[in-house]
């Protein structure tokens, strides 16, 4: 199964006087549902951004299945190895639910027919009924939009899911359903799921909980 390793990572913003991340190390594996908690400004989202290859560490190493990200094509890594789910959904407003999920597959060269078939399967797998596949995001509830976002994330084929406060804009019931979907992806489909959250109740459902504080990462709440 996929393994993401973070080894002694430091990170400092340009022109900043102190490190945001200070010697962060952990190993995250496929089949596990992981949560990172901590106060605002502690470095959680920065760490997620580095895992996603959107930022490079000042020092240290990020490796996927033993391959250092420094030596990989990061565009390909982001397309094929990982998927990011955002608090604000980040769906394309002028594309339907189905088109949103098809987009990345077509971008990677899949035929429209195959992409549509795969997108239909993914939407149904996260609980979006067929009659809603041709609706635009504005005509879907927040919970439905996040499900579409998860289906779109799965379309790339990567086995690492990075979720930044994915329930932050949802009510309690929809939050529960989204967490159940992410748990099932980890435990039943072998994904490595990493979720950043302020919600300790959500964190309590994780297999591993990591706490960020002042740039340091430790396991356990």
Q: What characteristics describe this protein?
A:
single chain, 221 residues, alpha/beta, six-stranded mixed β-sheet, four-stranded antiparallel β-sheet, 7 helices, 33% helix
Describe this structure in words.
The protein is α/β, with parallel strands linked by helices. The chain is built from seven helices and ten strands. The longest helix has 16 residues, at 172-187. Helix 4 (112-125) packs across helix 5. 33% of the residues lie in helices and 25% in strands. The chain starts with a strand and ends with a strand. The mean pLDDT is 93.
Quick gist of this model?
This protein is of the alpha/beta class and 221 residues long. It has helices at 44-51, 74-80, 97-107, 112-125, 142-155, 172-187, 200-203, and strands at residues 3-11, 21-29, 33-37, 59-64, 67-68, 82-85, 160-164, 192-196, 208-213, 216-219.
Instruction: Give the N-terminus to C-terminus distance in angstroms.
Output: 26 Å
Beta-sheet strand percentage? 15-25%
How many helices?
7
User: Which assembly state applies to the chains in this document?
Assistant: single chain
Low-confidence stretches: none
Radius of gyration: 17 Å
As a percent range, the share of helical residues equals: 25-40%
What spatial form do the alpha-carbon principal axes imply?
A: globular
Major β-sheet strand ordering: 6-7-8-3-9-10
Biggest β-sheet, characterized? 6 strands, mixed
What is the number of beta strands?
10
**How confident is the prediction overall: mean pLDDT?**
93
- The run of helices and strands is EEEHEEHEHHHEHEHEE
User: Would you tell me the structural class of the helices and strands?
Assistant: alpha/beta
